[in-house]
Design a protein that fits this description.
CATH architecture of chain A: Orthogonal Bundle
Radius of gyration of chain A: 12 Å
Oligomer: heterodimer
Structural class of chain A: mainly alpha
Helix content of chain B: 25-40%
Largest interface: A-B, 19 and 24 residues
CATH superfamily of chain A: ACP-like
Low-confidence stretches of chain A: none
Radius of gyration of chain B: 19 Å
Largest sheet of chain A: none
CATH topology of chain A: Non-ribosomal Peptide Synthetase Peptidyl Carrier Protein, Chain A
Distance between the termini of chain A: 22 Å
Mean pLDDT of chain B: 88
Number of domains of chain B: 2
Strand order of the largest sheet of chain B: 1-9-8-2-5-3-4
Number of domains of chain A: 1
CATH class of chain A: Mainly Alpha
Number of strands of chain B: 9
Order of helices and strands of chain B: HHHHHEHEEEHEEEHEEH
Chain lengths: 84, 303
């Protein structure tokens, strides 16, 4: 299972998204707004899930804005920060 | 015709010039000339149906039907009380004078909660002299932020925005910022800080609100504080204040909430905690009905 697959599984199961499967989420689908349709309350949940499942902390808004764009950006962020 | 309105914005009723007259009166003569001016200003605005309409949902629910003169006078009293708190806020900003007393032992409750290092969410409402509430939380020695919406057309200054005014010891988080400012709030809470936010007005869509009984009818209240508390592990202190006289207020902790971690994204999971907030707010409205300043309709279901 690749990191991106793990992220998709985290989003679907961790957020308990109705009617969404991992296959429905493309790597570059925007997580918020028109893409996956997550909102600001979900952002908090995603930050907590990323910390719990990958041991990586999204510390502030600047990091979060970049990391939470898509599965691609989240995977890059996790890879970069788990290596440190 | 008074039609309740669901939408709210932070635009001031008066112009920048009109506010300037009040600020000048306060600089020259203190609070009493400004209070005197309010008699004319409040009478004028209370005569406007569109202004009275802002509080009609609350007034009808809280007071029930009454003759038009009683309705008008009640509306005038509500507007006057609100205007007095705005003058007090300006006096505090310009002349640094306001006495906020706290219920005995309640500041210690906040200090003890903050000392646990889990962060602290102070949840308040548009009642009493809430705008000065944060000024009295200075002795809770952690980084602080206030979630505050500032509209371009909001010309009524916060107390710390007056020239020479005391710099606030808190930062401001804009709820219209990226992701509603939620990540900034979460970050501050994780660092053991305090976030002060409103529990009775939301700017998001239907999913960010939850239903809770307020004064006997279902109201729609923001869910974000409870989500944040569950995600961060921070306790929630429900803090209310009331104006007790010229330049005087009183503040207390009405309720403390411990929200279990991991309740997730389903907003209905937070309903029991919102109910405790709405119960406390209902008690407030029962005891001090003319200090309830949420001038819009909380009881219409959001789309």
């Amino acid at each position: 299972m690749t990191l991106k697959d793990k992220i998709k599984a985290m989003l679907v199961t961790g957020l308990n998204l109705p009617d969404v499967t991992e296959d429905d989420i493309a790597d570059d689908t925007p997580l918020f707004g028109d893409g996956l349709g997550l909102d600001s309350l979900d952002a908090v949940e995603v930050v907590v899930l990323v910390q719990q499942r990958f041991g990586v902390t999204i510390r502030d808004m600047d990091e979060g804005r970049v990391a939470l764009r898509s599965v691609n950006s989240l995977a890059e962020f996790i890879e970069r920060n788990s290596a440190q | 015709m008074e039609t309740p309105r669901r939408r709210w914005d932070s635009r001031s009723l008066g112009s920048r010039f009109a506010h300037g007259i009040f600020y000048a009166a306060i600089r020259l003569g203190g609070r009493w000339p400004a209070y005197a001016l309010l008699c004319f200003v409040v009478t004028f605005y209370t005569c406007l149906p569109q202004v009275r309409a802002r509080s009609v949902a609350y007034r009808e629910l809280r007071f029930g039907p009454s003759k038009w003169i009683k309705t008008w006078l009640r509306c005038y009293a509500l507007h006057m009380n609100f205007a007095l708190t705005l003058v007090d806020r300006a006096v505090f900003g310009i002349r640094k004078r306001f006495d906020m007393l706290a219920e005995l032992g309640h500041p210690q409750i906040l200090r003890d909660l903050a000392a646990q290092g889990r962060g602290l969410i102070v949840l308040t409402a548009h009642v009493g002299c809430w705008q000065l509430g944060m000024s009295s939380l200075g002795d809770v020695d952690v980084p602080k932020a206030v979630v505050m919406l500032r509209d371009e057309a909001d010309v009524d200054r916060q107390y710390f925005e007056h020239a020479g005014g005391r710099a606030p010891d808190f930062s401001i988080i804009d709820p219209r910022g990226p992701l509603g400012g939620m990540l900034e709030m979460l970050d501050l809470l994780r660092r053991g800080g305090m976030v002060c936010m409103m529990g009775d007005r939301d700017f998001g869509g239907a999913r960010s609100q939850l239903a809770a009984p307020l004064m006997g009818r279902t109201a729609w209240l923001p869910a974000s504080a409870y989500h944040l508390a569950s995600a961060s592990g921070a306790p929630v202190a429900v803090v209310f204040s009331r104006r007790t006289g010229p330049g005087r207020g009183y503040i207390w902790v009405a309720e403390t909430l411990e929200i279990p971690p991991g309740l997730g994204r389903e907003t209905s999971a937070y309903t029991p905690y919102a109910r405790r907030f709405s119960d406390a707010l209902s008690v407030y409205a029962q005891r001090w009905p003319l200090q309830f300043f949420n001038f819009y309709d909380l009881w219409t279901e959001p789309r």
